[in-house]
Write a structure and sequence with these properties.
InterPro entries: TPR-like_helical_dom_sf (IPR011990). It comes from Mycolicibacterium rhodesiae (strain NBB3). This is Tetratricopeptide repeat protein. It is a single chain. The protein has about 550 residues and is mainly alpha-helical. The protein is built from 24 helices and 4 strands. Strand 3, helix 24 and strand 4 form a beta-alpha-beta unit. Helix 8 runs antiparallel to helix 9. The N and C termini lie far apart (about 90 Å).
């Protein structure tokens, strides 16, 4: 019974984020388990080791654990099939016990396999593995609760991985199931509490990244209270840090700094590289906001180093863009552009890149040219740089804002306008004004004053993703973007006005052509999106 108690103690240590002690304890049990010839205990060791390696991003260890579990279970299957008669006499368990063990640890291995696929960004494989786990209909009543918990755990890991890769819309159905599961659990069990803390914290982060700040705070506070009640320092700290991101999002820099710094010691001790990097990112943002450029550069550097260690190309791409702001404020515009070139190469190599990511990249490069122009004492040279900035910023802003016109839900449309398109449109207005191009300014004013077109057919696909309008991430698949950006011809709308759509071509006066033609063409060319709706040109004069 000592080994059974130690296995339970190791599980307790892992849930409390004390993986080093749990690993040492599990490894110390192996000789005694081998002497006792208890494969079920050994499988539990491998399952727990695989899980703690997974949460600590030691994926080779998880792969080895999965391999050991499946090799052991395969051997039992071969004995049952009569292909290993040499081992038959060594099997001391009954067939019923072997079947029970096989069911339990096949599921544990499948959970680990799902988590591995998600961690590596292989979302299709993760989805398939999760389906195998959820569709396992083997009927062992005593394993039903454990099965349910590992399904929820796997869904959290898959949803988090999707969000890390800017695929928030694809995670939405998973979050709905996670919330139903953790909110419906009776509580009191340590594993249920662990899932509540992990799920609540992760969902809170999802809400922050998708602009649902009012929904994020209650979940983060509930998860933090549950973690604190258990004495889980890392779980408590992670909820504090996510609350810091909420404070940052609403402009409360003092609270963001307080919560981020208060949470960091436990996060650093927990040795979760991704969490540590995110802390350093926000430390850098806070330093940058008060123009402590050396501190910002150092903190962004720490974040980049950790993300490079765990091979997160998309996050490295983002931190390079953040670091380039330090170069901009220092007036090192060539260095800033060099960083963005490296960021572009990372984005090019990322198999799931989206047009929104490129639009934001181009907008940022335009900001560098704009800052370069404003620092240039030669008016002619500055004008050339501002024109170049406009060639980048205006098409990007038009492409991003075209999505706003296709969002039927008023709240989602407001989130998109506030957190996504407003900043880019403001930058387009600013560069046009600083360039002295009054014609472009007037055309942007006219464009921004217009409303979207209407159509009669509700768009089920766009309705699925518009609830996740966010400042940080693209929200839909390429096909959904194409559907939204293309819109429908008003001539085909029929009766009833049920959905907004992109704007058609606009003409400000009878003596001129459609406005913003050049920039709309660039938006379509660069981002593969028809940002102008099909249909007759709108005349905007009285």
């Amino acid at each position: 019974m000592t080994i059974v108690a130690d296995l339970e103690r190791a599980r307790h240590l892992s849930l409390a984020a004390n993986e080093d002690a749990a690993k040492d304890l599990l490894l110390s049990l192996i000789p005694a388990i081998e002497a006792a010839d208890r494969d079920d205990w050994m499988l539990e060791v491998y399952a727990q080791l695989g899980q703690l390696y997974l949460v600590r991003t030691a994926y080779n260890g998880t792969e080895e654990s999965v391999s050991r579990i499946r090799e052991c279970l395969a051997t039992y299957a071969e004995v049952r099939a009569g292909t290993r008669p040499d081992l038959a006499e060594q099997v001391t368990m009954s067939d019923a016990d072997v079947d029970h063990m096989t069911c339990r640890y096949s599921r544990r291995a499948q959970f680990l396999q799902t988590g591995l696929a998600a961690a590596h960004g292989d979302h299709e494989a993760a989805e398939a593995a999760l389906l195998v786990l959820t569709d396992d209909a083997t009927d062992y009543p005593d394993l039903a609760v454990e099965h349910r918990r590992y399904i929820t755990f796997a869904r959290i890991l898959c949803a988090n991985a999707l969000c890390d890769d800017d695929l928030h819309v694809q995670s939405l159905h998973l979050w709905e199931k996670v919330i139903d599961a953790i909110d419906g659990a009776p509580g009191g069990d340590e594993f249920d509490d662990y899932l509540f803390v992990l799920g609540g914290t992760s969902y809170g982060r999802f809400c922050v990244e998708t602009g649902r700040l009012g929904e994020a705070e209650p979940w983060l506070r509930r998860a933090g209270a549950r973690a604190e009640a258990r004495g889980w320092a890392l779980g408590t700290a992670r909820t504090q840090f996510e609350r810091a991101t909420v404070a940052w999002a609403v402009g409360d820099r003092a609270l963001a700094q307080h919560l981020a710094h208060e949470s960091y010691p436990a996060i650093a001790e927990g040795l979760r590289a991704h969490d540590v990097s995110r802390c350093w990112l926000y430390f850098g943002l806070i330093a940058l906001s008060i123009e402590e450029l050396d501190d910002a550069e150092e903190r962004f550097g720490h974040a980049e180093r950790h993300w490079r260690e765990i091979e997160k190309p998309l996050h490295i791409h983002r931190i390079l863009l953040q670091r380039s702001w330090v170069d901009i404020f220092r007036g090192d515009f060539d260095v800033a552009r060099k960083r963005t070139e490296e960021a572009r190469e990372l984005l090019d190599s990322w198999p799931r890149h989206s047009w929104l990511q490129y639009a934001r990249l181009h907008d940022h490069v335009g900001s560098i040219w704009r800052a370069d122009a404003l620092a240039d004492a030669d008016p002619d040279s500055a004008a050339v740089k501002l024109e170049r900035a406009a060639e980048l910023k205006v098409p990007a802003a038009l492409a991003v804002d075209s999505v706003r016109h296709a969002i039927a839900d008023a709240d989602a449309r407001m989130r998109w306008a506030t957190h996504v398109s407003a900043r880019m449109l403001a930058g387009a207005f600013a560069v046009a004004s600083e360039w002295g191009n009054t014609e472009l300014v007037s055309q942007l004013v006219e464009y921004h004053s217009a409303r979207g077109t209407f159509s009669a057919e509700p768009d089920r696909e766009s309705a699925e993703w518009t609830d996740t309008a966010t400042a940080a991430v693209p929200l839909e698949t390429v096909d959904e973007y194409a559907l939204v950006a293309a819109g429908e011809s008003p001539a085909d709308a029929g009766s009833g006005l049920t959905r907004l759509g992109p704007l058609p071509a606009l003409q400000m006066d009878p003596s001129s052509g459609a406005i913003l033609t050049h920039y709309r063409a660039l938006a379509a060319e660069r981002y593969g999106r028809a940002v102008t709706a099909v249909g007759p040109t709108w005349a905007t004069w009285p």
